[in-house]
Design goal:
This protein is of the alpha/beta class and about 450 residues long. It has 18 helices and 8 strands. The protein binds zinc ion (ZN).
Length: about 450
C-alpha cells in the first residue's frame, strides 16, 4: 500500500482524491482480514444456546461456513449449529451474536447502508452510491431486500414502542424521561396532520382484465402523516419566536386508524399527557377533524389559514372573473379581518353577498361559504399570531413533500408492504431513533 501511495504522490496528474482512493482500497484489504479474524473469535465464543428461547441446543456440530458481506468486503466465518427442541428449529447462535438477520448474510453495517440509501433513493442508484462512497459492490436487489427487511424490523420496533405508551408503566417512564431532558415549563403541544397519495402496484398485471370489466385500475392510495412538537412560549429564540423543544413524526400507508394510533403514541412521547394545551392544525379534510375529535378530545382546533384564504380567493374570482386587481381589492380586507380574529364578520359578509346573487354565482359562493361555516370555530388567527403559534400546517405539508420526493418518482410503483417498511425507516431516522435499529451507529465519543 505504501508503494502505491508513493507512486500516486509522484504522479503529476493525480491529486488528493487519487490518494484517498488508494488508501481506501488498500485499507479495505487489511481491515477485511482483521474483521474476519475478530468475527471468527466472536463466533467461537457464542454459547450453545438457542438465541430465541435460550434453551440448550442439542446435536451440536461445528464448522458450518458462511460468507458475510461487510463494509470492507466479504468475510468467511465458520460457526456451530445446534437443534432447539423447544423451537423445533436448527440454530446458529453465532449469527445472532454477530448481528446477522435470520435469512441474510449482510453485516449490521451493510444492513444500515441499505436502509439509509434505499429509503432515500431507488435501489439501482443506491448500488452506485454505496459503491462510490463505501467502496463495496452490493447489488441493487440485495440492497433492496436488505432495506425492506430492516424496514420490517423498524415496523416491529414501532409497534412495541407504541404499545408501551398504552400501558401505565410505559407512560410513567416516559414522564420521567421528559423530566430528565429538561424541567417542564408550561407548554402547548402542537399537532399537524396531512395526507398525500402514492402510486402502487396492487392491480399490476390485472389492468387489462379490470378494464374489460369496465373498471379503471386504481393505483393511487393515500399516505397519512402527522407531526407533533412542544411549543414553549417562555423560552424564546433570538427572533422572539417560541422555541420548538422536541418534534416527532408519523407517516403511514396503514390508513387513518393506523395514523390515529401512531400519532397518539408519538404525541404521548412528546408530552401529550403533560401539555397545558393541545392544538391541532390542519386543512379542511373531514377525516382529520373526525380523528381529532376521537383521539384528541379537548384539543383546540385550527384550520390552515392558507386553505381558508384559497376559498375566499375562489369567491373573489367568481365575482371578478376577468379582473385580477378587483379580485385582490375585494379579498384583501377579508383576509385582514381573518387575521384580526373577525371570522364571524367575514362569514356574515359572505352570507349577505350570497343572498344577493343568483344562479351559478350564488351556487359558487354557497360552496365556499359552507366551507367557512363548517370551520367557523377553527379560525383564530389573531390569537395564533399573538401566541406565536402556527397559522397553518405548513410544517407537515413540507414534510409530506419530502416523503413524496422519494416515494412518488415518475414511473415508480410500490407495494403497500414495501412503502410502509421504507417509510418507517425514514421516520425512524427523522425521529432520532435510528440507533434503536442500528446500535453501532451511536458515536461513543458523544456519551
Ligand atoms: Zn429455541
Amino acid at each position: 500500500m505504501a508503494k502505491r501511495v508513493e507512486r500516486s504522490v509522484c504522479a503529476a496528474d493525480e491529486n488528493l482524491g487519487h490518494l484517498e482512493e488508494e488508501l481506501l482500497r488498500g485499507g479495505q484489504e487489511v481491515l477485511c482480514q482483521m474483521l474476519e479474524k475478530a468475527a471468527q473469535q466472536k463466533a467461537d465464543a457464542a454459547p450453545p444456546l438457542c438465541p430465541v428461547c435460550q434453551n440448550k441446543l442439542s446435536r451440536l456440530s461445528k464448522g458450518h461456513w458462511t460468507t458475510i458481506q461487510t463494509r470492507f468486503g466479504s468475510i468467511h466465518v465458520q460457526r456451530a449449529r445446534g437443534y432447539c427442541r423447544r423451537c423445533r428449529k436448527w440454530r446458529f447462535p453465532a449469527d445472532t451474536l454477530l448481528g446477522l438477520p435470520e435469512e441474510g448474510t449482510q453485516s449490521p453495517s451493510v444492513q444500515e447502508m441499505a436502509a439509509l440509501t434505499v429509503s432515500k433513493m431507488p435501489a439501482a442508484e443506491a448500488e452506485q452510491v454505496v459503491e462510490r462512497l463505501a467502496g463495496v459492490k452490493i447489488s441493487a436487489a440485495t440492497l433492496g431486500r436488505a432495506a425492506r427487511q430492516q424496514g420490517q424490523r423498524a415496523q416491529e420496533e414501532r409497534e412495541q414502542l407504541d404499545q408501551k405508551m398504552s400501558t401505565p408503566e410505559g407512560r410513567t417512564q416516559q414522564d420521567k424521561d421528559l423530566q430528565l431532558q429538561l424541567p417542564l415549563e408550561p407548554f402547548t403541544l402542537v399537532i399537524e396532520l396531512d395526507a398525500w397519495n402514492i402510486r402502487e402496484r396492487d392491480d399490476w398485471g390485472q389492468s387489462a382484465a379490470l378494464r374489460a370489466r369496465g373498471q379503471e385500475p386504481s393505483r393511487w392510495h393515500w399516505a397519512y402523516g402527522g407531526t407533533c412538537f412542544r411549543l414553549n412560549q417562555r423560552a424564546q429564540s433570538a427572533t422572539g419566536r417560541p422555541t420548538i423543544l422536541s418534534r416527532g413524526y408519523v407517516m403511514t400507508r396503514g390508513g387513518v386508524d393506523a395514523l390515529k394510533e401512531q400519532l397518539w403514541a408519538e404525541a404521548m412521547r412528546h408530552g401529550l399527557g403533560r401539555a397545558n394545551e393541545v392544538l391541532i392544525v390542519a386543512d379542511g379534510a373531514v377525516w382529520i377533524w373526525n380523528l381529532a375529535a376521537d383521539r384528541f378530545p379537548g384539543a383546540r382546533q385550527r384550520v390552515d389559514f392558507y386553505h381558508v384564504s384559497q376559498h375566499l380567493w375562489a369567491v373573489a374570482h367568481t365575482l371578478h372573473s376577468d379582473d385580477e386587481a378587483a379580485a385582490r381589492a375585494w379579498v384583501q380586507p377579508l383576509l385582514a379581518k381573518l387575521k384580526a380574529d373577525e371570522s364571524c364578520e367575514v362569514i356574515t359578509e359572505l352570507e349577505e353577498l350570497q343572498a344577493r346573487l343568483e344562479g351559478v354565482r350564488a351556487q359558487a359562493v354557497e360552496k365556499e361559504l359552507s366551507y367557512l361555516q363548517s370551520h367557523r370555530e377553527r379560525m383564530d388567527y389573531g390569537r395564533a399570531q399573538q401566541k406565536g403559534e402556527p397559522l397553518g400546517s405548513g410544517a407537515m405539508e413540507s414534510t409530506c413533500r419530502q416523503y413524496q420526493c422519494r416515494f412518488k418518482r415518475t414511473g415508480q410503483f410500490w407495494s403497500q408492504t414495501g412503502d410502509e417498511a421504507l417509510m418507517c425507516l425514514e421516520t425512524f431516522r427523522r425521529n432520532g431513533r435510528w440507533h434503536l435499529l442500528f446500535p453501532h451507529s451511536i458515536d461513543p465519543s458523544k456519551n
